[in-house]
Amino acid sequence: MSTNDVENVVIIGTGCAGLTAALYAGRANLSPLVLTGQMPGGLLTTTSIVENYPGFAEGIDGYELMLNMQKQAERFGARIRTLQSVEDVDLSKRPFTLTVSDEKILAKAIIITSGASHKHLGLKSERLLEKKGVTYCATCDGALPVFRNQPLVVVGGGDSALEEALYLTRFGSEILVIHRRDALRASKIMQERALHNKKIRFVWDSVIEEIKDVKQDKVTGVVVRNLKTGEKREIPCAGVFVAIGHMPNTQIFKGKLAMDDNGYLIVKKGTQTSVEGIFAGGDCVDSVYRQAVTAAGTGCAAAIDAERYLASLEA
Ligand code: NAP
What we know:
Layout: E1 2-12, H1 16-27, E2 33-35, E3 49-50, E4 60-61, H2 62-75, E5 79-81, E6 88-90, E7 96-100, E8 103-112, E9 116-118, H3 124-128, E10 134-135, H4 138-141, E11 151-155, H5 159-168, E12 174-178, H6 188-195, E13 200-203, E14 206-212, E15 221-226, E16 232-236, E17 239-242, E18 246-248, E19 278-280, H7 292-314
Parallel strand pairs: 1-2, 1-8, 2-5, 8-19, 10-17, 11-12, 11-17, 12-13
Antiparallel strand pairs: 3-4, 6-7, 7-8, 9-18, 14-15, 15-16
Bound molecules: NADP nicotinamide-adenine-dinucleotide phosphate.
The site of NADP nicotinamide-adenine-dinucleotide phosphate (NAP) has 20 residues, from helix 5.
């Protein structure tokens, strides 16, 4: 195990928040070390067209947007380590210590932008059929031959679910959106698009009880229960796309930083966490707005806060 020199600032995560923090910290001459984790570019890389990031009148591909952000941060001296994840942190003494594989990294300041991961339904059959017809990303998997011209199920009633459903209309014969209520959470514009699409049908007030068929080792259908009537029925499908929201990637900070009951980090005075010198932004903090542009904004704020904190150490 090796111990390097002390870093000014280590940024954990490279979604919109992390790469914006890297850009600002780079431009402040802090030469930030940026650890991408297992999903470089974050969740936006799994989106097709991003239509609501300002500055792109025709929209921009999510992957391209993130690649541009990375190049922009690197131009100002951000050092990006791809596929490196933090396994443990010691925030009890300064400099802080991060364990990454066999290496100990020391840092004067840390910016946490570790984002969020897809929520699971929590069914045993879901786990056993993951990547065998159960997926969390239509953009990544929707074009697979197994889904072509087949009925497909999307679970959820938010923007993600409708975006997935609309995308899947290119491939599936019919898209069934299964939602646990009779009203959608998604934005009006997405609702209008989905409700007017002839290939999309809604199954209201319903939850999936089981995904079939574990014995055949592939998805053949879902057993759905209507929450109002209690009626159960099986709906044939070749794929289940789960889009029921996200949970923050903050497990390694449990007991070390203040967080709410759902695991979102609690910040005060801008982006400062419960430990001075540790800042946080993006989806691991924000359970309300969760937009690319708000993540970029809080990433920027975290870098400015870190820069001021480092300056105060030298004063
Ligand atoms: P979300 O808004 O939290 O919606 C999650 C949906 O899944 C809700 O409809 C929820 O039902 C349902 N759900 C949650 N847990 C469930 C469970 N265990 N079983 C069944 N259903 C469950 O999450 P999201 O759609 O991922 O969106 C997150 C944020 O990103 C939002 O701010 C959204 O606007 C934004 N976003 C924007 C775009 C876009 O503009 N193109 C695209 C994607 C996401 P209830 O409604 O009953 O709670």
